[in-house]
Amino acid sequence: MLLRHKILSLNGTLSSFENKRPMQQKLRIGFIGTGRIAQALIGGMSNSPKFTLFGYDKEATALATVAANYPLQPCSSIAEVGSSADVIILAVKPYQIADVLAELKSTLQPSHLLISVAAGISTTFMAEWTSPETRIVRAMPNTPMLVGLGMTALCCGTQATSEDMACAVELFSAAGRTVVLDEVQMDGATAVSGSGPAYMFYLLEALAKGGEACGLVYADALLLASQTMLGAATMVMQSSKSPAELQHDVTTPGGTTEAGLRVMDVKQVSDAMQQCVAAAAARSRELMK
């Protein structure tokens, strides 16, 4: 089940990006910022022979560590990344984006594709700091990317092509799954999947504490809860049934599951989760640049 969204897979093709380059020449990917999300992408891309990776980080020690662990060529400046790469991935904090784009602007060419993973930074904002002709893709990944199970929402700027999006989908598929949205939907994606891991951690902690209160050792309770959440999520992804239908399938009238669900209904857990998502989406809109 695809949860009403089209999750894309490109079967290892980079469309016109590869068609426009000599057969022997790899696509050059440049990272500005080499933090955890960047490292997750670098790790995934390192397994492909299609890419040559470049990177810059203002923390020289951090950059040296990444270059030692992955086949990434360190750059001494943002401008060097711009002159070295075909695709530039901005993996810096939102408050750093304007300064990075100002420094990068002079090296940007029409052939460049610019991809940002900075939360709350619109494609319009990035175009204003570069050029109206800049080809931009905005990405909202999440931290499970660190274990290869990320979920990334992607949207195009006005100048980005279908080939640009195809390229972005393949790059982010190296560390999980992707979905392509309209930019107006990115606040919702931020609230559901960008912030979503924290909600899952919250629920897992609550389940584990509940198990502990019922006599389990905390570590055992957390394992039981974590594997159950993983298995349930996998069932949703692989089944043609909705979560409500799957819930019904495992709820025996008068049984233990029904007793637990009744408490959740009384406490209005579903309403609370929906309000949680709405609050996160509203905050995302407030922070938007």
Could you say what the CATH architecture of the largest domain is?
3-Layer(aba) Sandwich
Given the structure, what is the number of helices?
13
Largest β-sheet summary: 8 strands, mixed
- The total strand number stands at 8
Give Rg in angstroms: 21 Å
Question: Helix share of residues?
Answer: 40-55%
Q: Please, what is the CATH homologous superfamily of the largest domain? A: NAD(P)-binding Rossmann-like Domain
Along the chain, the helix and strand elements come as HEHEHEHEHEHEEHEHHHHHH
GO cellular component, one term: cytoplasm
GO molecular function, one term: pyrroline-5-carboxylate reductase activity
Catalytic activity: L-proline + NADP(+) = (S)-1-pyrroline-5-carboxylate + NADPH + 2 H(+); L-proline + NAD(+) = (S)-1-pyrroline-5-carboxylate + NADH + 2 H(+)
Domain Pyrroline-5-carboxylate reductase dimerisation: 183-287
Write up what this structure looks like.
- Belongs to the pyrroline-5-carboxylate reductase family.
- It comes from Chlorobium chlorochromatii (strain CaD3).
- It is found in: Cytoplasm.
- Its EC number is 1.5.1.2.
- Pathway: Amino-acid biosynthesis; L-proline biosynthesis; L-proline from L-glutamate 5-semialdehyde: step 1/1.
- This protein has 13 helices and 8 strands.
- Helix 7 links the parallel strand 7 and strand 8.
- With 289 residues, it is α/β, with parallel strands linked by helices.
- The protein folds into 2 domains: 172 residues, NAD(P)-binding Rossmann-like Domain (Rossmann fold, 3-Layer(aba) Sandwich), CATH 3.40.50.720; 92 residues, ProC C-terminal domain-like fold (Orthogonal Bundle), CATH 1.10.3730.10.
- Helix content is 50%, strand content 14%.
- The longest helix is centred in the C-terminal third of the chain and has 21 residues.
